[in-house]
TrEMBL record:
Coiled coil: none annotated. This is MOSC domain-containing protein. InterPro entries: MoCF_Sase_C, MOSC_domain, Pyrv_Knase-like_insert_dom_sf. Pfam families: MOSC (PF03473). It comes from Deinococcus carri. Residues 21-170 form the MOSC domain. Gene3D superfamilies: PK beta-barrel domain-like.
Amino acid sequence: MTPSASVLAVSLSPAHTFSKTPQPEIHLLSGLGVEGDAHAGRTVRHRSRVAQNPDQPNLRQIHLIHAELLDELRGQGFRAAPGDLGENVTTRGVDLLGLPRGTRLHLGEAAVVEVTGLRNPCAQIDAFQPGLLRAVLGHDAAGNLIRKAGIMGVVLAGGAVRPGDRLRVELPPQPHERLERV
């Protein structure tokens, strides 16, 4: 993380749409997610998860993507603006994918998000732009799958979050657990 880690953009959608609309600010609600967003709730809201078990806890209340991924995608010829990939918060200056599970992200003056895992991109991403699924997946030197489409979290403390807000990372106690898909 650099001293200039910050929120680049904030977005939401009241409907289950692939992309979310950038906003001047969003309000995080403790234990729920983003006020007015279709994925807010104590139990799962993602359609595939609801179909499996509608009573499971919602570990995907908020979706964050690093702007560096959007830069990479634009360099490959994709349209990639904040909110396009369904994220609520677009960050700059922090390696979201390298954070351990349980990391707390302090956004703005009061909001705190606990990182629960990696977003698992699905086929919908190719319906948005053909070839995008392959672009947000990679493999490390050992051939292991790398998911680059952002991270998911739960809201521990509510508050307003705006573009330009500072982002502070609080790592959990050791030993750190690497992020897995949620």
